[in-house]
Amino acid sequence: MVAMERADSLLSNIKKKKAPNRRYFYAKGVSKTKIFIDAGHNDSGWNTGAVGNGLKEQDITFAVAKKLSNLLTARGLTIKLSRSTKETNLGTNNSSAINARYNMANEWGADYFISIHCNAGGGTGTETLYYKSDSLNYATTIQDAFIKAMKLRDRGIKYRNNIGVIMHTKMPAILIELAFIDTGADALVLVNKQDDMAAALAAGFYELLGMEAEEVTQEQFESMYAKMIAKGKGDNPSTWAKKICEAAKDAGIFEGDGSGNYNWQDPVTREALASVLKNAGIF
Predict the structure, then answer these.
(1) Residues near 80 by Cβ (< 8 Å), separated by ≥ 6?
(2) Per residue in 41-54, pLDDT tens?
(3) Which candidate in 5, 57, 127, 177 is catalytic?
(4) Known catalytic residue: 127?
(5) What does pTM read for this prediction?
């Protein structure tokens, strides 16, 4: 929740508008937008990343990618990660690890592709790489939002014609080098400001997609968020709760909504809880 609010605040600063007390961005009109987030490199074996200052690039990229995924998913966007877990390794060698990433995005039909990396070589700052002309505005928007928020050296937007994940993707695609893992000051940002980096990237996407905002209370937002998660999971209990939910249904504790739906993922109101307790014979 804190990271979400930070991302909203960052977008407000980018647009130089005074933010209301509480603004939440939502994907009205763009909820079907599919964003593929590539956490650069593999966890182990082949295609691992740079190292520096006791850090591993693949650890940083996964952490930021996962946080960004959570922020964008909470706004109703459709997200897919190249590495679903930190331990995920793609391909069987360096070449196939790269191929797997753009093939996955292409087969999924992503609308936007972002590959998250850390730089190395003793420099400082952030740069965003692109190849196709349809990716230039995308790259510029994300780079500007990130620099505005993180206050790192702006290394600019750079055209590159030798990076597979931005050359062979069928949708607008960029690769962002967050900061230099082998430079002390940058490394501190990479390890201590992961929430801020994810929020900065999210603010860039809000700007890119022209996402709308409305002012709601914390309580209203939590209700909206719970309903969104429930809708995404459908009318099915989580795996761990499936058997007990079926038993409760068979025992008549849950009556459903009369249309065959039990809304297992919905938050429970006091009146619903009272009904459940009554059916269970508690009073």
Answers:
(1) 34, 35, 36, 37, 104, 105, 108, 110
(2) 999 999 999 999 99
(3) 177
(4) no
(5) 0.70
